Amino acid sequence: MPKIVILPHQDLCPDGAVLEAETGETILDVALRNGIEIEHACEKSCACTTCHCIVREGFDSLPESSEEEDDMLDKAWGAGAGKSTELPGPRYRRRSGYRNSTLHNQPCA
């Protein structure tokens, strides 16, 4: 089962967390299911970018983004990702200082 490492965030997850995900489940759904209240203004319809995140490690384990997703992220404040394959699963961090910038609604595996 894929694992998602949520890095500590003062408001959403002060101690960080390691969450288990079903293959194909979105990071947003995994976070919400585990009590991490990520803002998602469009109710997960991929119409905004309030739930996007920064992938710190494990980027190569994610599927390619869709054209629609890329177009949305072009409009997102501070969107970006770093690549590393040191860990077997993706690691995520909510961007500090911007309330509407959190986890990227991307399948986990």
Brief characterization of the structure:
Keywords: 2Fe-2S, Electron transport, Iron, Iron-sulfur, Metal-binding, Transport. With 109 residues, the protein is α+β, with helices and mostly antiparallel strands. Helices cover 14% and strands 14% of the residues.
Write the layout of secondary structure elements.
Elements: E1 3-6, E2 17-20, H1 27-33, E3 54-57, H2 67-74, E4 91-93
Parallel strand pairs: 1-4
Antiparallel strand pairs: 1-2, 3-4
Describe this entry's structure for a reader.
By secondary structure, the chain is α+β, with helices and mostly antiparallel strands. Helices cover 14% and strands 14% of the residues. The chain is globular and about 35 Å long. The protein starts with a strand and ends in a 16-residue tail after the last strand.
Give helix and strand order, one letter per element, not per position.
EEHEHE
Number of domains: 1
Mean pLDDT: 73
Name the strands of the widest sheet in spatial order: 2-1-4-3
Helix-and-strand structural type = alpha+beta
Strand content: 5-15%
Question: Which features does this protein show?
Answer:
alpha+beta; iron; globular; 109 residues; 2Fe-2S; 14% helix; Ubiquitin-like (UB roll); metal-binding; electron transfer activity; four-stranded mixed sheet; 2 iron, 2 sulfur cluster binding
